[in-house]
Amino acid sequence: MSRSLVFAVAALAALALAQPANAAIAPDVSHSPNADDMRVAYWVMLVVVSVIGVALVAGLLVAVRRFRTTDATAEPRRLTAGRGVIAKAGAGLAALSVAIFVFGVIVSSGVRDATAEEGADEIEIDAVAQQWLWRFEYPEQAEGTFSEGIATVFSYGELVVPVDTVVNLNIDSTDVLHSWFVPALGPQVWAVPGEIQETSFIADEEGLYRGRSTIYSGTGYPTMRATVRVVSAEEYQDYIETLNSDLQEGQQAVQDAVETEIAQENSDAVAEEPSGATEEGG
């Protein structure tokens, strides 16, 4: 019996070590201070769970080896313990549970808020989820708008932010529950209709960081993935200017189309008017 358990544990360990690199148990490499906190919390909890698991398996193996017998008719040996053993064990487990709880509260309270160095820039961006894409509204004001309804520049699908800058996200949803989760930059945040959820991150390296979603939001769920592109401050300004220029061109095209349609309607109305009054004959 004990040999079978040992063999099973060894087989599971070998299987875990044989996993390919893309299936490793390690989390994504962090590129933000709060993502670092997430990574630390992950490893701490993994070590705690592993130690508890190994202790339970070891206790089971010891019990099987100590109390095994080949006599099928023999009565099982009773396990006895001294007075207070159960209370001591319970107190130890309770202390461990409290420590894990406090650790989780401390870490989670700091994970959602990025801490900037003194003098670091900050920007505030609205991330609005809908079936099935993300809309990002930047703080820069759009220029040359033809309607008051569009006050900021925006993008869809990909969020572009400058490196070494505190990015404060205001996360919202227009329909159902969605999730914002870019593991390399920070924690998972739910987008709840009618509620603004806040989170922050500071990307320490330029690059493309892909997000994941853990909440099923409908048939288009597989296509809804947030992406964050971190660029230099100069590239960020160029990107905002490009968005602004594209927005103005689009608005101008709409305005031209509206004016053309109005002019055509006026022209048709004039053509349909009756000719001048007929001359009176005598």
Give a short summary of the structure.
The chain is an alpha+beta fold and 282 residues long. It is built from 4 helices and 10 strands; from the N terminus they run αααββββββββββα.
Walkthrough of the structure:
This protein has four helices and ten strands. The chain is of the alpha+beta class. A five-stranded mixed sheet has the order 3-2-1-5-8. It has a three-stranded mixed sheet with strand order 4-10-9. Strands 6-7 form a two-stranded antiparallel sheet. The chain folds into two domains: 2-68 and 82-111, no CATH class; 122-245, Sandwich (Immunoglobulin-like), CATH 2.60.40.420. Strand 1 (122-130) and strand 2 (133-141) form a beta hairpin. The longest helix has 40 residues, at 233-272.
Helix count equals: 4
What value does the average pLDDT take? 76
Q: What is the total tally of β strands? A: 10
Number of domains: 2
Helix percentage range: 40-55%
Order of helices and strands: HHHEEEEEEEEEEH
Give the strand line-up of the largest sheet: 3-2-1-5-8
Q: CATH class of the largest domain, anyone?
A: Mainly Beta
The CATH topology of the largest domain is Immunoglobulin-like
* Major sheet size, sense and barrel closure: 5 strands, mixed
Quote the distance from N terminus to C terminus.
129 Å
Rg over CA atoms, rounded to whole Å, is: 32 Å
β-strand amount: 15-25%
**Architecture per CATH nomenclature, i.e. the level-2 architecture of the largest domain:** Sandwich
In the predicted model, the low-confidence regions spanning at least 5 consecutive residues are 18-23, 277-282
